[in-house]
Design a protein that fits this description.
It is a single chain. The chain is an alpha+beta fold. The protein has one domain: Alpha-Beta Plaits, CATH 3.30.70.120. It contains 2 helices and 6 strands. It has a 4-stranded antiparallel beta sheet, covered by helices on one side. The radius of gyration is 17 Å and the shape is elongated. The protein starts with a strand and ends in a 7-residue tail after the last strand. Bound molecules: ligand 2BA.
């Protein structure tokens, strides 16, 4: 068994959730935030059998769109000066960032 952890953009999350559940994947959807942009994104936890991992990855890939996002300069006042960016920067946020992790034990009490 594997645990798929997928970080996707909020705009894609409802469509992806529907697609995954339509394909009988069991899914937990978590509200999360990216450390760099400090804005909201969505993390999916999908526990599934090894043979279904490729199908889940395909659905995640098909339902996530990579987008350019402008990062506005943020004042270091009261914050961490190490992360201060003095000018707007454009970053490409991926359609999905995915980790596939082996599951040692799965219990469903
Ligand atoms: P954020 O950390 O908010 O990052 C958003 C986007 O900003 C990233 O897109 C990347 O294009 C850029 N970025 C991140 N850190 C950067 C840095 N130090 N310098 C320059 N640009 C940087 P993605 O790579 O597609 O990541 C989208 C979201 O996926 C991330 O949001 C984070 O929530 C998650 N993520 C990505 N890699 C991860 C990792 N290794 N571990 C945990 N979460 C990760």
């Amino acid at each position: 068994m594997k645990l798929i952890i997928a970080v996707v953009q909020d705009q894609d999350s409802n469509r992806l959730l529907k697609t995954l559940t339509d394909h009988n994947f069991r899914v937990t959807k978590l509200a999360s935030s990216g450390g760099f942009l400090k804005s909201g994104n969505t993390t999916f936890m999908i526990g599934t059998e090894d043979i279904r991992v490729d199908k889940a990855l395909q659905l995640i890939k098909e339902n996530g769109e990579s987008r350019d996002q402008l990062v506005a300069p943020v004042s270091p006042m009261g914050g961490n000066a190490d992360s201060y960016v003095p000018y707007p920067v454009q970053v490409k946020v991926g359609g999905a960032t995915v980790f596939v992790v082996p599951v040692e034990q799965f219990h469903h009490f």
